[in-house]
Amino acid sequence: MKIFRGFEEARGIRNPVVTTGSFDGVHIGHKTILNRLKMLAKKYDGESVLITFDPHPREVLYPDTAGKDLKLINSHEEKNELLRKSGLDNLIIVEFTKEFSKTTSEEFVRDYLHGILNAKVVVVGFNHHFGFNKEGDYKHLWNWREKYHFEAEEIPEQEVQHEAVSSTRIRKAISEGYIQRANAYLDHYYMIMGIHERYEFPGFEKLPSFLRVPITEECKILPATGIYAVSVVNEKKDSRGMALICQDQEKGSVVLVHIFDNEEEFRDRKSTVLFHKMIHGTVSLTDLKISDRLQHAKDEISELIY
Prior knowledge:
28% of the residues lie in helices and 28% in strands. It is of the alpha/beta class. It folds into 2 domains: 2-163, Rossmann fold (3-Layer(aba) Sandwich), CATH 3.40.50; 189-303, Elongation Factor Tu (Ef-tu), domain 3, CATH 2.40.30.
């Protein structure tokens, strides 16, 4: 997957089949769009293209309301890795500014989709809006097909167990600890990527050894505090494990992982924690029974099939 910073870098893509959006989570609805891009790219002997934005538009447009303390499912690195695995050919990351937000929907189509990319097909998801004041939608794209020489398609809304899938719904499930529900919406495991570091519990020498996964982007959403069944993977190894989401008086929210097998293969290496299931709810490091709770959780996780 090629990554471009802005439209000017992306000139010359062959017969672009384009979609646009934040694609936070790269969930099942996003994957449906991406799969359609791949099919159309093959049909037109072209390449699939996603135009996304950084920072998230809400942070720029609504800094005091919807954008304030906005949490996202994926870090930039995680999102790029998910898009790469999806088979996307090209990712264009556009800096979203207040000035850019004033671009009208037709200007966006005329100047960028047609003018720079010369898009062959434009694919959007259900109820997608774009341009200044979200004035543009699929009907506009359909009406501009002949004028700007592209085809237009709309992907229907996706559902899981009769619930509409959205990044907002997934964030809510994660923040409340409903990891299995979030995973169903995502169509993959909720993940946290990072370099695992040794972590010492102050005053608790008998606890299992844990590695800390630093959260490098403040906007990354974390599950509710608790103990989770996880898998941990890197380029060389994979292992079952136990994740502890808790509060540290000095560091704030921390993500700790106890590796069941070959911990040394994960220490000080970039690895990915894949969350499967919450085992126990709120856990505090000041709980005098924390050692017993962790051991019970480990025993329970060891009996799970995943």
